[in-house]
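Can anyone check this?
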Amino acid sequence: MGALALLQLALPANLLLTAAATLRSLLVAEPRRSAAEPRTILLSGGKMTKALQLARSFHRAGHRVILVESDKYRLTGHRFSRDVDRFYTVPDPRSADYPGALRDIVIAEGVDLYVPVCSPAASYYDALAKPVLAPHCDVLHCDAEMVRALDDKHEFATMAASLGLPVPDSHRITTPQQVAEFDFDTAAAPYILKSIPYDPVNRLDLTTLPRPAQRDTAAFAWSKPISTDTPWIMQQFVPGQEYCVHSTVRDGRVQVYACCASSAFQVNYAMVERPEIEAWVRGFVEPLALTGQVSFDFIQTDDGRVYPIECNPRTHSAITMFYDHPDLAKAYLTGDTPVITPTASSRPTYWAYHELWRLITAPTTVRERVRVIARGKDAIFDWSDPLPFLMVHHVHIPWLLIKNLLAGRDWIRIDFNIGKLVEPAGD
């Protein structure tokens, strides 16, 4: 109820901004290009800002955009974007009906390209849908076996090592007893424990092992839901600066590339040049001839060495940095374009309501919050397309909060970036 009240307090200012932007759009026509070969693009993950950004990039390049999302998020504010031509709800990706529902939309709308904008829980199921859709349209996604391997943190590390790339020491853990009995004295300690299946809660726990007492190490391991069905990885903790990478690749050729300084909960994106990281990415995707959107998390040590932490075979929110790039759509559609990176004029992206919450919870950071907003660009707000900014914050998120309130269901935080409440065992 407190979150709902805070959102209501912000509503008048948002309404004024939306009204001003709408009036401006009526008076100042934004230039829109005509594509030589207009295509129809299907995007999933309609609740997430990265799907909105791709919709804007495709539509403003002269293409038609179809957006889909599961029924739970049917009120996503992005469906009201002027850059979305049609919106559909589809079954949960884990449902047996999901591939058929996508196929029906592809056929009905004459879709030329499907770009999955997956949640962690959906990327494997979008890969399973690929053979169903492939006879009708191009699908920019890895196949199911590759998605499974890339999503498995231990298997990914093993795969990278087989290509001669540096990786942290890693161990697959299927029972807490393995941690309790592990010989940390002769290993590359310290380590951290991470769930291999996506876990929205435990993923933020970066407790290092071993603990000061052996019994504390064992107790920590036993406090985690580790099992044969839910394996974890115990991975060497590498000190250094964390970075995240988005890459769009076709047959191993990098078409789109972005690298940002990162953190456990990342909602600010600014391009940085790290040639060592880009070389590592190419050294991974090229030999495997990957096709799809492949994101990575890295640690770079003080002496410049680069180590991958994990790979996520799906769109990264860093794609929001391409908001002003005229060739993003082309890079997704064709396989022979030079690699594109964010433009020199691209400003760092942020989410205004995240920044406001940080200001409320940490008033001493007011200068930092003002600096972020002054030098950056809100990832959702667009002067020529203002409705998503209003609807995400004052329809979509309030609707999710009200549903959780009525159901008595716990949640941890609001993530405006991915358009959901972070919940235990959530998506």
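Reply from J.R.: I decoded it. The first helix runs from residue 2 to 27.
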